[in-house]
Design goal:
Radius of gyration: 18 Å
Shape: globular
Number of strands: 0
Number of domains: 1
CATH superfamily: UbiA prenyltransferase
Structural class: mainly alpha
Mean pLDDT: 90
């Protein structure tokens, strides 16, 4: 398999959002930026993400042959068998990394196993499944909890609330992404989930004023994406999807700033900018 094909399969442009998710889980659980477990977790959970993206193409190969024939498997750039092997292999490697970072603590291992299960469940059954946005959201929740459990035996409320906020963001995002090939969005009520992280951000900002500009940036990202959905011109739905994917890191910045992690919030904003830049190079969907 060529490197360019692997990069396309792995949607590597979205990796910075995984790194900012890790910062949320690790720092809000009491970690510090100098802790070497954090970069190991970023690497390990990136392996889960890339492996999951490989499996997405492998499971969706029949759908892609009809709707996205340019994807690597239907276009003949890779076989389904090798994509499955790489996908599961990367997740296994990620699990080992989590084990090392978490000193093989059972809670971290259970969270990593739940992440793997959610990834496989989503990829195998997301077509036509009304609960698939919830399952996708749980994938990012497990990234946060896995990072948190590698730093602390019990997750503080800040980590759990942050995970809930990310879950709501992902439900709205995934609902849109499921209809990307249609170039339109049907019922808009699931997008109401995107309002919940804004409300939680306002609560954080009332106690930590630094959150306000970050919350304004997050709100701006949502408005930009939703305006594309309202316009519904050619390419607008995909543009909304990749914007909301990148916007996950802005939400991470809000959550980190609200938890007193100013430098972590700065890094999350950098992850947002980096994701947008990388999406110009490798498609984020």
């Amino acid at each position: 398999m060529k490197l360019a094909t692997a990069l396309q399969l792995g949607r590597i442009s979205n990796l910075p959002t995984v790194w900012s998710n890790v910062l949320v889980g690790a720092l809000l659980a009491g970690g510090v930026l100098g802790d070497l477990r954090i970069p190991l977790l970023m690497l390990s959970l990136s392996a889960f993400y890339i492996g999951g993206m490989f499996l997405n193409d492998a499971f969706d190969r029949a759908f892609d042959a009809k709707h996205r024939p340019e994807r690597p498997i239907p276009s003949g750039q890779a076989t389904a068998a090798e994509v499955f092997v790489w996908g599961y292999g990367l997740m296994a490697a990620g699990g080992v990394g989590v084990g090392v970072a978490g000193a093989w603590h059972w809670r971290a291992l259970v969270s990593a196993a739940a992440l793997a299960a959610a990834i496989v469940l989503y990829n195998a059954h997301h077509k036509g499944n009304p609960l698939s946005p919830l399952v996708m959201g749980l994938c990012r929740v497990c990234v946060v909890t896995t990072a948190g459990f590698c730093l602390a035996p019990v997750l503080p409320a800040a980590v759990l609330l942050a995970a809930a906020a990310l879950l709501c963001h992902l439900i709205g995002l995934t609902y849109i992404a499921k209809q990307e090939h249609l170039e339109r969005v049907g019922s808009l009520w699931p997008l109401a989930f995107l309002a919940l992280p804004v409300a939680y951000g306002a609560v954080l900002a009332s106690a930590v004023p630094l959150v306000w500009p970050l919350l304004a940036l997050y709100f701006g990202v949502l408005i930009f994406a939703l305006s594309r959905l309202r316009r519904r011109g050619p390419g607008d739905v995909p543009r909304a999807v990749v914007t909301l994917i990148a916007g996950m890191s802005v939400l991470d910045a809000v959550l980190l700033a609200g938890g007193g992690q100013t430098m972590g919030a700065v890094l999350a904003v950098i992850a947002f900018v980096l994701t947008l830049r990388l999406q110009r190079w490798v498609s984020g969907t």
